[in-house]
Amino acid sequence: MIERIGIIGAGAIGSVVGGFLTKAGRDVTLIDQWPEHIEAMRTKGLRLSGTIGDQVVPVKALHIHELQSVGEPFDAVFVAVKSYDTEWATALAISYLKPDGVVVDFQNGINDERVAAVAGTHRTLGCVITISAGMYEPGHAMRTDTATIGFKIGEHDGRDTPRARELAEIMNAVAESKVTTNLFGERWSKLAINCMANPLAGLTGLGTLQVRTDPDISAVGVHVGAEAIMVGRAVGHEVEPIYGIPVQRYVDAYEGRGLAPLLDDIAEIARKRGGGQHSLLQDEDTVQRRRRRHHPRPRGRLHARSQEPRRRRAHATASLRWLTAPARDRTGEDPPMTPRHRRSARPARDRWRAR
User: Fold this and answer.
1) Considering the entire predicted model, what is its pTM?
2) Which listed residue, 37, 84, 113, 159, has the most CB atoms within 10 A of its CB?
3) Which CATH class is domain 182-298+308-345?
4) Contact 61/32 with Cβ under 8 angstroms?
5) Any alpha helices (H) in the chain, and if so which ranges?
């Protein structure tokens, strides 16, 4: 029976989930390595907002190093960190887990087998997350979508087990949840969704709603998503529908059939679901702020810097249009280049000609 829950990685999703489970009366501990976030939750409570309304929930929050003060182990630990932190977070989780407890892979990406390699398959469940959330300041997480189904929980071998059903029942306090008998098909579906939006949001500076509703950008997403679908199929998984749309339509569009109506359907669904600033773009903005803080620029260049996002967005859109144009329309052409790239390319080109 799952009573005590630990969440390693109190980012946007982890905080939304931890906050709502706490509000539902569950014994939840949020654990994170962002000191300001932990202190904000301790002193002011966890603020939740967005499509779930504005509210403050008192939560239990620990710094990573404070886990050693936990005396009673957890029945379940959610690993809710970035993929590159999977192994150490899982190892940390099992150190504070009951012998019959379960580690829940609560991540994007294909990490279930990496978690199982550390914790053991018999102690592992997968959870595919279909809600979206954002965190733009410590102590405050917001849900940014209106999806009906929030979580899909499954065993690696596709069995419908009591522990999977129990976890789905618990997660209903956050959003409607269900047990899936095709965990890896759901994983590849979510991976395709992320591939269709995340890098494009990072390249263009647009939010996840805009990259799904701008036809020039969304067309690139469809092609990238179709490649992910084909890879998932090639390794033996039946990829589940994306946004409720059969995945074969994405493959057909990739092969030149039915792209325009597919883009219309994706845009209509995206407008209903909403969107926010993706974490790739959040990470980039954080890096840029730190650079500006530690390496301030002369004031005379502030205006030029303020125009940089607009120029980058225009260039990214032009590049995406070039990529999606039929090959015959760009034969002999080079992809669009920014003025900076032109300057850096010119000397090398001139040196080659001098030979």
Assistant:
1) 0.79
2) 37
3) mainly alpha
4) yes
5) 12-23, 35-44, 86-95, 112-119, 162-171, 183-204, 208-213, 215-234, 248-254, 259-273, 279-294, 302-324, 339-354
